[in-house]
Amino acid sequence: MEDIMREGKIREYASQKGTSKLVLTVGVIDGDNMDFSVYGPKGKEFPKTEHRYEIGSLTKQIMESLLAKAISEKKVSIDDKIDKYIKMEGAEHIPTIRELVTHTARYGNSYPKAVARREMKNALLSRENPYTGYTNENLLKDVNSFKPNPKHRKWVYSNFGGAVLGRVLSEVYGKDIKNLIEEYAKEELGLENTGYTQDTDVSKCWKWNGDEEYLAVNGLVSTIGDMMKFVDENINKEPSYLGEAHKKYFNISKDKYDMGLGWIINHDTGIIWHDGSTDFSDCFIGFEKKSKKGIVILSNKANSGKINAARLGTELLSEMIKNRKHR
Fold it and tell me: Coiled coil located at which positions (predicted)?
């Protein structure tokens, strides 16, 4: 029954507008077992090949796992203000690491304005990377000149906040963010096929110069094998510090969601998850620790339409957990 329901949801996703060239990879983690399938338009099953996808903001989750390591090693403290690591000159607003990682630093999703304009242009007219060319010099200028609006909500998802967090970690480890995250992914987590390679085989890819601060939150390319491995490592807390990232660091809404270190934690299901997208991909990773079940969605369909990767992933994972409880 579980397989039938899964295939039905996948077929519904794969029948939406914009799926004529779909390559959708779905990974399932169930205890000690991991497997994946590849689907095309209308849910047609494709040969079992590990394709390479841009993973968007899942890059951020790998970076935030490195933050968990830095906290465990006492290189940083969650409530440190960022001026301990970044030169702040005349800044009115100096957030903490906790505020950066939980999207409560008040930067919002429209700061810096120059990047926000490029994001808007990208959404309406082009499919070019809005973060290309945004270097450390730009970030330091923007982080020092920021003035918070007291009328804005406390929690607003912010890629800029993630980029600032990446700069903090760069200073802590003495490496540029690109090499820092790539080395961490490969050497610490064993994600051998994950890197800033700009070499997807299922779609076009955003272009990067290699020195952008936004590489902390976007830009990695990966495979289903590596992403299932990353989910499995989080389920089993291997390395052990990954478990620190699953704790509550901020409550987004009273009865629905908490923030971990980057992770979103659903109250009702216990699902811990994150998603990521670019103009050419839409991805999701999620898991529930008690049942040791997880789902990975990698798609070359952009995040649009009634069903996106996050919705598909959470529905599939919720069904897996529910079926476990009924047995």
Answer: none
